[in-house]
Automatic annotation (TrEMBL):
The lineage of its organism: Bacteria, Candidatus Kaiseribacteriota. It comes from the Bacteria. One of its GO terms (molecular function) is Glc3Man9GlcNAc2 oligosaccharide glucosidase activity. Gene3D superfamilies: 1.50.10.10. This is Mannosylglycerate hydrolase MGH1-like glycoside hydrolase domain-containing protein. One of its GO terms (biological process) is protein N-linked glycosylation. Residues 31-389 form the Mannosylglycerate hydrolase MGH1-like glycoside hydrolase domain.
Length: 399
């Protein structure tokens, strides 16, 4: 299989145009709308060979921004096809997703400089990151809270079992019902973080906050390039504050852990979230060495024959085969976590280990096609077919 060719073909096939908006759906049969972080990854891939399509992807994503700055995690461009994602408020969901937009915008510009594009989206970008910092951290603790597992992008990760009161062997349907109930409760309390939402589900998630730190730095680059001194100061200040707060409250035993509740109880479930801070350079060189050698490369926990498990094999919640009904973040490999780990490894100079992730990612696509996720032990594909962000392998060639 010529992966390059197949990946580009898939991006083309999953491209949609609605009115003046152009975007790429994650998968025709399962996900016929626009998703926030998916679109950012699609833009990062497109930036390599079709910058105008990459820019269009972000423009359409930002076109449904809420008045308070929130960017919704799904835009239902064509209402009424699927009723599974009934989390909507007038054509969009009421949740957000890991904030990869500034990183994607800077990446597009880095490859194809376009000041006018950056100027045109800068106000929306700034207001999105301001929303996260002001509305999702109402007590100024410098950690951003997510209000639903879906905001992490890892919908059924066992990191969230305790705060959701879910059992390890909960079914896909029951799990979805818990998350939908959260949306209903938050809708009733008008999405007020300070007084209401925090009572239901309020998690300081490691990948979300690590991704935010790296994106605030990207926003800082954009603001500096555009000579918006205030924006540059805001972005860099908060990148530093969040990185420090993560260290203070989410770090224990040489690893980062997500936390829940007012007293920051660490959610001690071993997942690939340990590796996400590599992407933002949050471990020291020595700590990174320990994380990579002792955890990432341990076959008994994360290092599987076909790549990096999203949950340690030693966790009671670990399920290689996912759900019969669909995808799973309870162990299977996702191309997205591979990409973030790949970027993190390169940041610390682990070229051989990064190349190994790339080789394994390509092998998975060759064996099972562009599936949503993969069994780490057998490489078998799971969940949606024709899943667009598999094309992230095109952005794994920098070692
Ligand atoms: C699944 C994934 C989520 C992704 C969405 C659309 O819900 O868990 O991360 O954004 O599919 O692809």
């Amino acid at each position: 299989m010529n992966i390059q060719k197949e990946a580009k073909k898939l991006l083309e096939k999953n491209r949609r145009i609605t009115g003046e908006h152009q975007y790429t759906i994650p998968s025709e049969e399962h996900y016929p709308y626009q998703w926030l972080w998916d679109s950012c990854f699609h833009a990062i891939i497109l930036a390599q060979y079709d910058p105008e399509a990459a820019r269009a992807e972000l423009r359409s994503l930002l076109s449904k921004q809420f008045r308070d700055g929130m960017v919704p995690h799904i835009i239902y461009w064509l209402p009424g096809i699927l009723h599974m994602f009934r989390w909507g408020v007038e054509g969009t969901s009421s949740l957000t997703q890991p904030p990869m937009i500034a990183y994607a915008a800077w990446e597009i510009h880095r490859r194809n400089p376009d000041k006018a594009f950056l100027e045109s989206i800068y106000p929306e970008l700034l207001s999105y990151y301001r929303f996260l910092i002001e509305k999702r951290d109402p007590r100024d603790h410098h950690l951003i809270g997510i209000i639903n597992p879906d905001e992490s992008g890892e919908d059924n990760s066992p990191r969230f079992d305790a705060p959701l009161s879910a059992l390890h062997d909960i079914s896909y349907k029951e799990h979805l019902a818990l998350r939908t109930r959260l949306v209903d409760a938050n809708t009733e309390c008008n999405f007020d973080a300070e007084t209401c939402m925090r009572n239901y589900f309020w998690v300081k998630d490691v990948p979300f906050n690590a991704i935010l730190v790296e994106n605030l730095r990207a926003l800082g680059h954009i603001a500096s390039f555009l000579k918006h001194g205030d924006g540059e100061h805001f972005a860099n200040l908060h990148a530093g504050l969040i990185a420090n707060a993560m260290r203070e409250r989410l770090f224990g035993g040489g690893l980062y852990w997500s936390a829940a509740g007012a007293n920051y109880t660490l959610l001690k479930v071993a997942t690939w979230a340990h590796f996400a801070p590599l992407f933002a350079g949050l471990y020291s060189e020595e700590e990174a060495e320990h994380v990579v050698r002792t955890h990432l490369l341990d076959p008994e926990t994360f290092y599987a024959p076909f790549g990096i498990r999203t949950v340690s094999k030693k966790e009671p919640s670990y399920r290689a085969e996912g759900y019969a009904e669909g995808f799973s973040w309870r162990g299977p490999i996702w191309m997205l976590s591979h990409w973030l780990i790949y970027r993190g490894l390169l940041r610390y100079g682990y070229k051989t280990e990064a190349a190994d992730i790339r080789t394994k990612s390509i092998a998975l696509l060759e064996k099972s096609g562009f599936r949503e996720c993969f069994n780490p032990e057998t490489g078998e594909g799971q969940g949606a077919k024709g899943f667009t962000w598999g094309a992230l392998v095109l952005d794994m060639n920098d070692e």
